[in-house]
Design goal:
With 388 residues, the protein is mainly alpha-helical. It contains 15 helices and 3 strands. The radius of gyration is 29 Å and the shape is extended.
Amino acid sequence: MSHSFDDISQQLKRRHRKSARLKWISMGALGLAGLFLLLFFTDMLNKGLPAFQQAYVNTEINYTEEAASDARQAIADDLVPLVSRTEIRSIPLQMRNNEDLLGTSEQRWLLVNGEVDQYLKGNRNSLSEEERAAIDERVESGQVELAFNRTFFTEGDSKTSESAGILAAVVGTVMTMIVTLAISFPIGVMTAVYLEEFAPDNRITQAIEININNLAAIPSILFGLLGLAIFINFFGVPRSSPLAGGMTLALMTLPVIIISTRAALRSVPDSIRHAAFGVGCSRWQVVRDHVLPLAMPGIMTGSIIGLAQAMGETAPLIIVGMVAFIPDVGASFTEAATVMPAQIFTWAGEPEPAFVEKTAGGILVLLAVLISLNAFAVLLRKKFERRW
């Protein structure tokens, strides 16, 4: 008996040691994941926060007849190398739009070029020692300073880094998500209601369920190829438009909404259905008046998470052409547009160092939106959660 007891004790000790090792390995893996996440956010913040600042130079603009034909005549010669080309090119256009400017002058803060901006932020640049010394003198005199980069949030894309903004991409993302929601939500919910509440349990239904589950796991780029082949090539939907992008993302979001909706419908107790049947309701009345209202918080949560996932997708939108150069905000669902992930992808491929911070700044904006949507989904689930 004592020998058997010793054997059992040894086995228990080995089990406890294995359990302790598994615990420490799990904690180490969790800590490592947290460390990588911390390093990621730290790197993004270090690279992205400078994008929210921009260098400006205070200069006098003279709206003369010479400036109408040669914009460089509107500002002092020594400031021409500092001011952004975008600002200089806009002066004749302002004079054409407002003839009263001719013969007047004004003091304004203008964007400096990307090299000067990078120098003031302490980044790599190609300025000479003389140019740096001249800039330092202007900084000391208050003529050049770093301020909040309003251009980043109020302008579209640009070939010059100092003038590039994310507004056109934000508007394109919103329009694309409107199309995605308008298509995927009603179709997804109705499909889930039919499969869960009305469809018979046969081989056809089982095959549909298997395919829906498989569609939720396939690579997103395949949905882009499907959207290109069906919506653009077959139906003739305008390429690079929010309509094409939204319809493509709707295909990708449908399985997520269907699966989450079915889970929400299953969470409603059968006693609710039986009680409704007991007072003479038809099956459709039971679903419409009792099951769907109770399952709606779960349906909304799954739909929001599905849309957040679609908002961060790049591959399918690249396939349908939503990586176009969009300097102005689009006003139609059929005009060419871009979205935030595609805009970030475009900036990441630019050779200028100034676009590195634009890329990281765009990532921070996109992360803020995605985290906000996921937090809203969690709050929505907590607020309307019911325990049966």
